[in-house]
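Review form for a predicted model. The reviewer records the input and the model, then writes brief findings.
Reviewer: anonymous (R2)
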Amino acid sequence: MWLRQVGGFQFVGLLGLLFLGGLSISGWWWFAQVSDRVLNSFYQQTGQRLSGKDITFDPWQRRLTGSDIRVEEQGIQFTAQKVSVVLNYRHWWGAWFGEDVESLSGVELDDVSIAIDPELIALPLPTLFQRLSINRGRLSVSGIDQPLSFDQLTLVKEEEGRIRIYSDSRDGESWSFSGVYEVSKGLLDGEVRLVELPLSALVNAVPFNVLATQNNELSANDRFSGSVSATLSLSWDKPGGLILKGDAEGHSGQLLWSGLSAQWQQWHLNNLQFHGNDPAQSTAELAISGLDLRVPETLAGEFSVQLMPTLPAGITPLAINDSRLELANGHSPWLFENVNGRLVADGISGKEKNSRTYQFSAALANIGDLQLSGRLSGSDNDFAFQLNDARLAGPLKKYSAVAGYDMQGSQFDLSYNSQIHTGQLDISDLQAKKIANSLPVSSIHLLKALITDSSGRAAIPFSLEPGKSRLSQRIYRAVEQRVMAIVQAPFDYLSHTTGHALEPVLYHEAGKAKLTQRSQKNLVNLKKALIERPELNVLINVGVSESRDWPELSLYELEKALLELYAATSSVEPAEVIAIPPGVRASLVEQMYLATRRHQKIPEVGEQSPGQRVQEAERWLLKNWPKTPGQLERLQKARYDYLKSETGTASGHIELQLSSGPDRKGREPVSILTLQ
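Model under review:
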C-alpha cells in the first residue's frame, strides 16, 4: 500500500517536471521569438522592414541593436554599421505581445551612410522619436559626386511640424550645419560653417569650369591644395532647389593641372548667391591676392583666349591684386609682375547679357609697364593695351631685326585697339646696328628723322589684318611692313602724316628761275613739313633742261636783239623803248632772217600771208640762234639764288646744290628733292 502511494507521488512529480519543462521550453521559445515579433510589429506599424545582421532585442531594457542595418524610403537610402535604439511601449509587456511602439528614445547610430535624391524625397514628420543621434557617417546627394563626411548628426523633433538638425565634422574636414526642416512645407533653412575645409573636398562637388576639359578630374600628377572657411545661409525645397548665400575665404593653396601651376596667398568670395536649380544665375564677388600663375608653352599661345571665356559668368567682379603671371616662351618667358586687375559684368540684357569688361595692369619684367582693358562678349574679345617705357629685350628680342638693322635695346611705347585694328609704336630711344651680311633698305638716320615729330616722338602707326597667329607676331610684321613703306615712299608718308601734299621735284618755268604755281605750293608745304619733322633735312639739286630751257633763252636773246635794232634805227635808247610796234617788229624779223640766211629766198608774195612768213622766219631764228657760252649755267645759278631766297627760315634744313650738268633728255626743267 505504501509502495503504491509512493509510486503515485513519483508519477505526479514526473508529470509536474514534464509540465515545468514544457513551460520552460515554451518560455524560452517565446522569448526567442520576441525580436521577430518586435520587428514584424515595427514593420506593420511603420511600413519599414529593417534588414541587417545580428539584429537583437533585449525585452528587459527594450533596446533593439543590430549591425549593417539598411532602410530605404522614397528618395532616401540609409545604411548603418551599428544601431542602438530603445522602444517605448504603453505596457511593460508590450514587447512580448507585439504592441505598437509609442516612441523611440536613446537612438544611436554609428558609421552611417545616407544617400538622398532631392527630386524624389518625401520625408514625413517622424512620430516615433523625439531625438535621433548619428555618430560618424557619410551623406551623398544626387548630382554631387563627392560624399560629405560628418562626425555627428542630430535630429530633434520640435513643435509645429519642425525638425531641428545639427551636424558637424571635426576630423580633417571641419564644418557644421544648424537648421530647421519644416515638414509641411518641405523647406530646409539653416546655416553652414566651414572652418579650414580642404579645397580638394570640393573639386568633385562643385563644377569648376577651368577643369571642364578634364571632366573635373585631377590626374595622378595633378595637385589641388588649400582650404576654405565660410559662413553661408542655406535653404532648400523642391521648387527652388538649393540656395546658398554668404561669404567665403581661403589662404595659401596650390593647383597643379596639365602643366599649369597656380599658387595663391589669399582669396575672398563675397556676396555669394548660389542657385542649385540654375547655376548660371549664381553670382559672387571674387578677390585674389598673391596669385602666382605659371602657364606652360602648350597653353600660353592662346591663354587669354581660352581662360577668359571659361571664367564663371556669375563671378563679377573678379579682382586680382599683387600677383604674378608667367607664360612659358622657350628660354625667354613672358613674366608679368605686380599684376592688378578687375573684371566686371556690364549688367546689360539681351543678346550681350554675358558681356564683361576688364582692366589689368602689370610690370612686364625686363620690358615695361602694361595697361590692358577690354570687353568680353561670348567668344568675342575687344581689347586695347598700352605698353609704356618699354625696352626691346627679353622675349621681344626675337622681333628686333627690322629693315636690315638690329634694334635691340630701343626704348618705346606701344598701343593697340582691336576694335579699330590699329595701333602705334612710339620710339623714344632708337638703337640700331647693321646686321652682318644684310643690306639695309635705307639710312637709319633718315628713318628716324622721318618718323620724329616736333615733340621728339618717333611714331610708326600700323594696322592689323585679322589672323590666327600670335598678336606679337602680327604686330611685328605690321610694323616691319610699315617701316619698309616709309623708306620706299618717304614723300607719300610725309604727305599722309603731316597733312601737307608733297612731291619729290620742283618745276621751274622754262628759261626762268621762278617756280611754277604748283611747285611754289609744294615748296611752301615742304617748309611746313620740316617744321613738324625738325630732324629731317632736304637736299635740292638745282637743275636746268637744255631741251626745254634753250628755246626760252633763245627767245629772250631774239627779243633783246630786236630791241637793240629798233633802238638803233629809231635813234632812241633801248631802255626808253616800251614796246616795238607789231608791224615794225615783223619787218625787223624778216630783215634779220634775210641777213642771217643770205642765200635763202623769202617766199613769194601770194604763196604765204605776211604773218605766216614772219612766223616761219622767227621759228628758224629761234632754232638756229647761237648758244652763248655759260648761258645755262647763269640760269642754273639764278634758280639757285631764287630757291635760296624762297626757303627763308627753313634754310637750316635745306641744302642747295647745283646739279652736275643740264638735262639733255627732254625732261621738264626741275630741281630734285632728296630727303636726308
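Findings: The first helix runs from residue 2 to 32.
Further findings: Confidence is low (pLDDT under 50) at residues 207-216.
Recommendation: see findings above.
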